[in-house]
Amino acid sequence: MSTNRALTGHRWVAGWVEMRQTRVQVGIRGSWTWLMMLACAGLGVLGRADDRGASVVVVYNSAMPDSLAVARHYAERRGVPTNQLVGLMLPETEVISRGDYESRLQNPLVTELSARGLWRLRDEIRPATEDRPGQVVQRVAESRIRNLVVCYGVPLRIAEDATRRDAGALSLPDGLRRNEAAVDADLTVLPLLLAGGTLMGPVLNPFFMTTNAAALQPLAGLLVVGRLDGPSAAQSAALVDRAIEAEQNGLLGRAYFDLRSITDPSFLAGDRWISNAWSAARSYGFDTVADLKAATIPAGFPMSHVALYAGWYGANVSGPMAEPQVEFVPGAIAYHLHSFSAATLKSTNSGWVGPFIARGVTATMGTVSEPYLDGTPDIGAAFVRLMYFGFTWGEAAIASQRLLSWQLTVVGDPLYRPFSRNALDRMKDLAQRRDGRVDWAMVMLYNRRHEIGGKLDAIIADLESETRLKFSPILQEKLADFHRDAGHHDRAAEGYRKASRLNPSPHQRRRLAWNAGEESELAGHPREAYEAYKALAEDPQAWDDPGLLFARLCALGEKLHERSDLRRWTIEMERLKITAPK
Length: 582
Prior knowledge:
The chain is an alpha/beta fold.
């Protein structure tokens, strides 16, 4: 989307989406939308109570032993019946031709689902139209499953087939006149493909922004799909382990958002989606950080205990996310908006989805080819459904998409439900088990109290009485944050220093040092501020904003007559070609 092609493309895609939302009976794939809506009318849906292993079919590549191993591991962890593991002989590549997708994946999968009694199909006559002859199609009349897990080794992307052109394709804008797609995106609408859906371009999602997760099921034309995939089979299998751990203990940590503060109306929606995700996380009780600069978050930015991340728009993983070890907590959900973020899942440095998985993310999603902005998910909608409606990761991903059967692949266990328990019950359970993660659960409750207008002095007094405060860097930092918010700069600086003495994580230690320096400056203690910044200067990895860091060191060094250090800071600025901010 950084190219002129994407810019103009987004404009006409937006116009096409707007037209299709108001005139769903006109244009390509109008029948798909109609079929989806009709399928929901008057039909019972599969209950959410069954949304465990019995509701899942697992697909793996029988040509690859590692693929089978991932499938078996998932089935064991989630209790999937052995009859619901389907092995298919597939290419051992990430790209599959449209013909092979149909003959070796789509059609054999439908045959297996029917033969194993997981689907009951019914033939229906589709009447002729002006541009299409009549035909007999199949519809899912009964289904015992609603979730599909695609394992490591199953191809990722369906290649464009220039010989296949569906009726009505000429009505599409050039950029949408394509039949290439993410494998998982077409598997999501597999019931509709059986019912006569076309392959060209995307289909509008009538369940976009739905709050009724139970409606997302095969009788309505959908499968809830998630992929266990990544650079290695071991990393792919670990996705379900981390999901289960987070379900048991809660998704606890900090949330980071990387906006661009963009004003171009063609791209403004991307910032809005991420901003909405930020608001949702903040209201839920997460400690949140938002970078509002146009560039992506720089290297050295102290991202500790990462539970949630959403940002855009870099071609490849960068900044603190590119470090070999990122402080992702078990269950972490991360998303970076870029047109080719999931072009491959096998690299630890190319794109974003593969690198995320390699560094410990539990759930993510990305596009395999150019989707245009309206073809990417609304991450704010996904976060809201996870946190406030108790959706699974697979359900939230579907509800966040305007367009289906397009370029998006959803990576992670589709059953992953990170917010199934309320915060108070989770905190009580962790406290009873004497689990140190209780500190994060407490932080979230204090943040919620602050969010709804609780008086800071009362919140501070209660937090100061917590017995875990004396040995928890998490709670000490939170107390210092509240003092900072209340304008108690002396107490805030001391709180950050206390937290730094309680064995914080490496990234947390960097943040504490910077905050201690800033609050000491505001409190009128230049010597303490200077020592905090000087400690950061000793660690090049901690240089989030070296221009600002060395400018402050120079200013304070001059004030404190630290002549021997001043030359050092000046040399560093010259070496890094930094101009001190005015």
